[in-house]
Design goal:
The chain is α+β, with helices and mostly antiparallel strands. The protein contains 13 helices and 21 strands. The protein has a domain of 48 residues. Belongs to the peptidase C69 family.
């Protein structure tokens, strides 16, 4: 009995120890990561010549607040601190805690950057999106120090181009190591956009294994929590880059043999290609931008990138990120029906694609994601989303635009935050999930609106669109005038002008979100 107790205690302690040191998986579902979607576009694929990257931060655990981190001069001997993220449930709502695990030398001067949960743009129009794809469990190493969020910050603080950022990652990860699971960073600058996929070096080792592929200038691409880089040609340095150990690690682990065709995704993240949650989103994005390809929604592999049928607009990207497969066989609430006033069978106004998972059981919902339904592009647990334009014909301050939305983008609106913006509206800086529900928070304004509208989605969404769709269109159309106005100002006044616009529109949309939500309570009283 004593022996049994000791063994049980050992197993328990080992389990606790592993949990404490392994990278957190709180956002994973059914054993796979499914947290973010990123779409990219080369400069010849967009209507105005912008290079585009994007990101939906699909995790209500990540932080709701954001701020502009200023450019800084650091004293000799200064350090950049490194942290490990883990789930933390002792505050008002589930969130993350960040425990310091090390530090590296800081450089003398760092660039200004927009400090979202995953830092996304700097003052030089270097921009980053992100999507986790997992990869082989045995590649994760607790000997390493740099995780995804810290690497993005380091890139933005220190680099001015995508290629420079990838080179920096190679240098830092060789020395300090990748302490995370497989990630895809979509790194854009004023000229080009790259997908950078990285995994750990293996248990007990320091380093990383990575590959990068450039999206052709006339193409678009997507990453939706699955590795998408396949065959590579490292002699083509204009389009591919990789770590020195890319073939050796695959060969040592038996994931690839000499003489076989080397496919990065099947060597380093084969499980990710099995995920319908990922593949369905890939299909939908590519099909909405290049319907002429007639891609099969049930294929296992899609092209890394495709030429869109038409030049990509901001309106189209907003439409894609709001998508939940309505009008396709994969709208998983399509069978929740009732008779309308004329006796015709229609989808119930109460059917919504943002139901808590427990409600799927109530309605017998099943789909490509099994009892979870379908993993749609728009999600109720998105914390924030970005669509970033990098424009080389304008000064960096106004050329780089982060179109920033809060919470579920299906019920939200994007405001411009410029590479030169030095501050945000106060409500964007409130630590909302740490504090709980608050009328002072931008995130809560949109979270409340999205949650409320889901209760009678078939009707309420139209009330939201009636306000936000024309307002969004006006923001996009006004940008050309903002560019002109910026160029007419003295250099002293330019940054203040951009900052005031970001703050003004931030305040405006938050006020609208509260106003629409209050109106829904009144209009639909006793109807939900």
């Amino acid at each position: 009995m004593k022996k049994q107790f000791k063994m049980s205690l050992f197993i328990l302690m080992a389990s606790i120890s592993f949990t404490a040191i392994a990278q957190d998986k709180s956002d994973w579902k059914n054993g796979v990561p499914e947290g973010c979607t990123t779409i990219t576009a080369g400069k010849m694929a967009t209507i105005d010549g912008s290079v585009i990257t994007s990101h939906t931060d699909d995790s209500h655990r990540t932080r709701a607040w954001m701020e502009v981190a200023p450019a800084q001069k650091h004293e000799k001997g200064s350090k950049f601190e490194l942290f490990e993220r883990s789930a933390y449930d002792s505050l008002a709502m589930p969130t993350y805690q960040h425990k310091k695990i090390g530090e590296i030398d800081q450089i003398e001067k760092t660039y200004q950057f927009l400090n979202t949960a995953y830092p996304c743009i700097n003052e030089k129009q270097l921009a980053i999106g992100e999507s986790t794809f997992g990869g082989h469990e045995e590649l994760f190493s607790t000997e390493c120090l740099i995780d995804c969020q810290r690497l993005q910050q380091l890139m933005l603080e220190r680099c001015s181009s995508a290629r420079e950022a990838i080179g920096l990652a190679d240098d830092l990860l060789k020395k300090y190591g990748w302490r995370d699971y497989g990630e895809c960073l979509t790194i854009a600058d004023k000229k080009e956009v790259w997908h950078f996929e990285v995994v750990g070096p293996g248990k007990g080792k320091v380093g990383a294994v990575w590959v990068a592929q450039r999206v052709p200038d006339n193409h678009i691409s997507v990453n939706a929590n699955a590795s998408t880089i396949k065959e590579i040609n490292l002699e083509d340095t204009n389009n591919f880059m990789a770590s020195e150990n890319i073939f050796d690690v695959a060969k040592e682990n038996g994931w690839w043999k000499e003489g076989e065709t080397f496919r990065w995704n099947y060597a380093y993240a084969p499980e990710s290609r099995l995920s319908i949650a990922s593949r369905r989103r890939e299909w939908r994005v590519l099909s909405m931008l290049a319907p002429s390809l007639q891609l099969d929604a049930n294929d296992k592999d899609y092209p890394f990138s495709v030429k869109p049928d038409e030049k990509v607009t901001m309106d189209k990207l907003v439409e894609i990120f709001k998508d939940y497969y309505e009008g396709t066989p994969y709208n998983f609430v399509k069978n929740i029906k009732q008779a309308d006033k004329d006796g015709n069978e229609v989808i119930s106004p109460f059917a919504n694609p943002f139901m808590p998972y427990d409600m799927n059981k109530l309605f017998g919902v099943n789909g490509g994601w099994d009892e979870l339904g379908e993993r749609t592009i728009a999600r109720w647990y998105t914390m924030y989303a970005t669509i970033i334009q990098c424009r080389d014909w304008l000064p960096d301050e106004v050329g780089g635009i982060v179109w920033l939305a809060q919470d579920n983008v299906a019920t939200s609106i994007y405001i411009p935050v410029y590479a030169g913006t030095t501050d945000l509206a106060e409500s964007y800086k409130v630590k909302a999930r740490r504090l709980g529900y608050s009328r002072t928070s931008a995130w809560w304004a949109f979270n409340r609106l999205g949650t409320l509208s889901a209760q009678r989605w078939g009707d309420m969404r139209h009330d939201i669109d009636k306000v936000f769709v024309p307002l969004q269109k006006s923001y996009f159309e006004e940008q050309a005038k903002i560019d002109e106005q910026f160029m007419s100002l003295s250099k002293k006044k330019r940054v203040e002008f951009l900052t005031q616009r970001s703050i003004q529109l931030g305040n405006e949309v938050v006020e609208k979100a509260w106003e629409i939500g209050d109106g829904l309570w009144t209009k639909y009283d006793e109807k939900f």
